[in-house]
Amino acid sequence: IITFEDFTCAHCGTFNIETKPLLETEYINRGLVSLEFRHMAILGDDSVRSAAASECAADQDLFWPYHDTLFQRQGGAGWASTSRLKGFAREMNDALGSGGLDLDAFDDCVDAGVKDLIVAAQTDEAGQLIVGAGGRPSTPTFVINGALAFQGAQPIEAFRARIDALLPDTDAAEEDESAAPDTGPPVDGRLLGDPDAPVQLVAFEDFSCSHCGTFSLETKPLIEAEYITDGRVAIEFRHFAILGPDSERAAAASECAADQNLFWPYHDVLFERQGGSGWASDDHLKDFAREVDGLDLDAFDACVDSGEKLQVVRDSTDAAGQMIVGAGGQPSTPTFFINGELAVEGARPIEVFRERIEAALTAGGG
User: Fold this and answer.
1) Which domains does the chain have, with CATH numbers?
2) DSSP notation for 187-243
3) What values do phi and psi take at 24, rounded to 5?
4) Cβ neighbours, 10 Å, residue 283
5) Cα–Cα distance between 144 and 5 in angstroms, integer?
6) Angle at 362 between CA 361 and CA 365, to 5 degrees
7) pLDDT at 169 over 70
8) Cβ contacts of 93 within 8 Å, gap of 6 or more
9) Is-contact 303 271, C-beta < 8 A?
10) Is the peptide bond before 334 cis (omega within 30 degrees of 0)?
11) CB-based contacts of 318, cutoff 8 Å, min separation 6
12) Which tens digits make up the pLDDT trace of 209-265?
């Protein structure tokens, strides 16, 4: 379950104080459900300040205790002033007894305002995802296994009904895992180059992202010519499909091409044909496939029609967001990691990539 919430939202408070504890007892503690909180701070300055403070607590692995404290102390205008947010941290520490926040570090983080950009980026992304799924940009909003499930506070019975319908029955859960269909890598991406290359460049991209198109059509060919062909660099593409239904459909279609070992040619065609809203309809995606030599078009069309790759894309997108934010980046596209470290955000000229790649080669003795 992904929850899009605002710490100033009264209905979010109702969910967290009344419903979430029941979900924890009945499902989360038994390993049947996981709950992911995402910021949608849309109700003013208190919303942004409290969300940013929760990220300061998250830096010390205490997001959830501070999250609970915020919803318990939620109030009217001005409830989340900087001084009160610091006071809530002290209340939380008193309640925990031990293992609490380093208050000096927390206070410095709150004063610095360093988390505001993370909150703003998550809020923008949340709005795009919800509207793209046919919902209204409001809080709380709940997405379950990639599908819009609820908007507004709902009773526990509504969650039970939706969750139970998704849980496998006992017999299915005990089946041999080898019988499960291979739907492709949900987290790992598609590799171009030598898997043992000393520099591994991971690109988190969205086929609807114009800056991703700039990188893929202008910069990637130069990286290929200068570094990939001689085995010094490999590029791994990972889906970060955050810009709506076109993004998800295009990414899913690329996975259909990947089933036939033609991910990269189709990837290039998608970026060449990238356009405005509706550019990646199923019909357009099938037409683009006719530009790729070697595809079994009947198999490709059937894969696109089935929608079987959408969950692969959603899983990859969730993992990408967690990895980028965990590395201190903004959840945006394109984002690039080099040898496991956040290296470049946004479309950058080849000179920036050369500098980062050469530094990685030097560090690795390459």
Assistant:
1) 2-166 (3.40.30.10), 190-363 (3.40.30.10)
2) SS-EEES-TT-SEEEEEEE-TT-HHHHHIIIIIHHHHIIIIITTTSEEEEEEE---S
3) -60, -50
4) 9
5) 15
6) 85
7) no
8) 100, 101, 103
9) no
10) yes
11) 2, 36
12) 989 999 999 999 999 999 999 999 999 999 999 888 899 999 999 999 999 999 999
Q: Are the C-beta atoms of 59 and 25 separated by less than 8 Å?
A: no
CB atoms within 10 A of CB 33: 17
Closest CA to 139 of 325, 4, 45: 4
- Beta pairing partners, 258: none
Tens of pLDDT, residue by residue over 120-151, are 989 998 888 888 888 888 999 999 988 889 99
Which tokens belong to 27? 């499902």
Place of tokens 């969750």: 163
The C-alpha angle 247, 48, 117, rounded to 5 degrees, equals: 55
Q: What are the tokens at 97?
A: 């007894």
Sorting pLDDT into bands at 50, 70 and 90, what band is 175? Answer: very low
Q: Given the DSSP bridges, would you call strands 199-205 and 233-239 parallel, antiparallel or unpaired?
A: parallel
Type of residue at 225: A
Q: For position 178, what pLDDT does the model report?
A: 40
**What is the tens place of the pLDDT at every residue in 269-298?**
999 999 877 899 999 999 999 999 999 999
Pairing state of beta strands 2-5 and 36-39? Answer: parallel
Residue 334 has pLDDT above 60, yes or no: yes
Strand order in the sheet with 36-39: 36-39, 2-5, 141-144, 147-151
| Cα-only R_g, the chain | 22
pLDDT at 244: 83
Instruction: Please determine, for residue 186, whether its predicted confidence score (pLDDT) is greater than 50.
Output: no
Tokens of 119: 């909150």
Q: Which residues pair with 337 in a beta bridge?
A: 202, 342
Query: Rounded CA gap, 35 and 204, in Å?
Result: 23
Whether the pTM exceeds 0.70: the reply is: no
> Which pLDDT does position 181 carry in this prediction?
36
Cβ–Cβ under 8 Å, residues 324 and 200 = no
- Distance (Å, rounded) from C-alpha 259 to C-alpha 267? 13
